[in-house]
Amino acid sequence: LISLLSCTTNQARLTVSPSSSQFFKEDFVSLSCEEDDSSAGWTLRRNTSKQQRSQCGDGWGRWTRSSCNISTLFTLDSGVYWCESREGPISNMVNLTVTGKLSVWS
CATH assignment of 13-99? Predict the structure, then answer.
């Protein structure tokens, strides 16, 4: 008798609020790791244009419940963001671009 066990891994979704991939310097953004069951056990990570891989709370962003909030964006925050679990699976990746604010001269 052969018995097969299947193990399903829940996939997280990274959601960005406001829903955009283009932001201006000093904007606010909230990034959430969401899955069908819960958001527990997921860490938000990023790889910036300076090739620095780090997680929310490690010099940038603040965890509030299940979201990582960045209250003031800088151009150095541009990069690829994703959710990762201790077991290894990752979410979709989102490329955020932060540019300087436009000035209007009158």
Answer: 2.60.40.10
